Amino acid sequence: MGDPASVLRHTARCSSLDTLDRALTGCRACPRLVAWREEVASVKRAAFRDWVYWGRPVAGFGPADAAMAVVGLAPAAHGANRTGRMFTGDATGDFLFTALHTVGLASQPTSTHVGDGLELRGVRLTAPVHCAPPGNTPTASEAETCRGWLSAELRLLSPRLRVVVVLGGFGWRMLLPALDAAGWRTPRPRPVFGHGAHVVLPATADREALHLLGSYHPSRRNTFTGRLTLPMLVDVLRRAVALAEL
Ligand code: SF4
């Protein structure tokens, strides 16, 4: 598939997360991101020269019946774009998985590669953009194109989903229209992102209420400067676990 409309056509045909994840890994709808993810996978970083980089879109990670989702930004060039698993193989992931393990959602505090034994309980990790962007900055049109994948993922999670933790303002802005497209009613004007923000989307005839919780993104910039500390992220995750009744 190679254009935005084809993303929507393809996701509409996916009736399970397995099918969706497999289809996603073949997506080539954003030419700039396809070129970047493949160039990074070819050139590599010296420390990882022995790795065979994934170099493709990175699917969500976690059980299909998750009551909770964590939405970040996009795969890192030498993290998930190398390992092929969301948030795996970089400092941001180390921070996040330490927090997830602390609250009982991850079987171990580290996430180094596919096959490292890590399992998630009740939570699925995903992103509004599934390919590594240059400078960690997707364009608006790339984010809009990739939104089709996130909407489809949320739709397939909807029977059990009760809480979404959003890491950072970009994810927050991208999530709301994705939830609209997946069938939730989202507020207007848009709620403002902040660390600790809490918004409840009301229950509908066929949906339970959905809680959205905001956290600063565990990027190196935020964690190294102390803007986001481990207790701050653990606190948000503990609230999410309670709301999701995990
Ligand atoms: Fe496809 Fe999303 Fe990657 Fe664009 S960013 S190529 S829509 S998977």
Global structural class: alpha/beta
CATH H-level superfamily: Uracil-DNA glycosylase-like domain
Distance between the termini: 37 Å
- The rough form would be described as globular
CATH topology: Uracil-DNA Glycosylase, subunit E
What is the C-level CATH assignment?
Alpha Beta
Please specify the SSE layout and strand pairing.
Layout: H1 4-12, H2 17-24, H3 31-43, E1 68-71, H4 80-83, H5 91-102, E2 123-126, H6 140-157, E3 163-167, H7 169-181, E4 198-201, E5 210-215, H8 220-224, H9 230-244
Parallel strand pairs: 1-2, 1-3, 3-5
Antiparallel strand pairs: 4-5
Helix pairs in contact: 1-6, 5-9, 6-7
This protein binds iron/sulfur cluster.
Iron/sulfur cluster is lined by residues 7, 24, 27-30, 33-34, 57, 129-131, 142, 145-146, 149.
Structure write-up:
By secondary structure, this protein is of the alpha/beta class. The chain has a single domain (4-244), classed as Uracil-DNA glycosylase-like domain (Uracil-DNA Glycosylase, subunit E). Helices cover 39% and strands 9% of the residues. The chain has 9 helices and 5 strands; from the N terminus they run αααβααβαβαββαα. Strands 2-1-3-5-4 form a 5-stranded mixed beta sheet, sandwiched between helices. A hairpin with an 8-residue loop joins strand 4 and strand 5. Helix 1 runs parallel beside helix 6 and helix 6 packs across helix 7. It is globular and about 50 Å long. It starts with a helix and ends with a helix. Bound molecules: iron/sulfur cluster. The site of iron/sulfur cluster has 16 residues, from helix 3 and helix 6.
